[in-house]
What does this fold into?
Amino acid sequence: MTEFATSHDSETDPRTRMECGVCWTVYDPAEGDPLGRAAPGTPFAALPEDWCCPTCDAPPVKFLRLDDDR
It folds into this structure.
């Protein structure tokens, strides 16, 4: 079962995958975002301030925590 929480959750694990609430693109810290200047291993909370969704340009506030028991 998949559950969502907002990106403002202070208990977000640095390994937690985040999903864009606009286009459903998943940010996986293990993979990073080479186009968004995020090296593999970069937690969502440590992304650059101007980072946005690589697919739809949504701001980080539009992302939701993806709890998928990986």
Notes: DSSP finds no helices and four strands in the chain. The first strand starts at residue 3 and ends at 6.
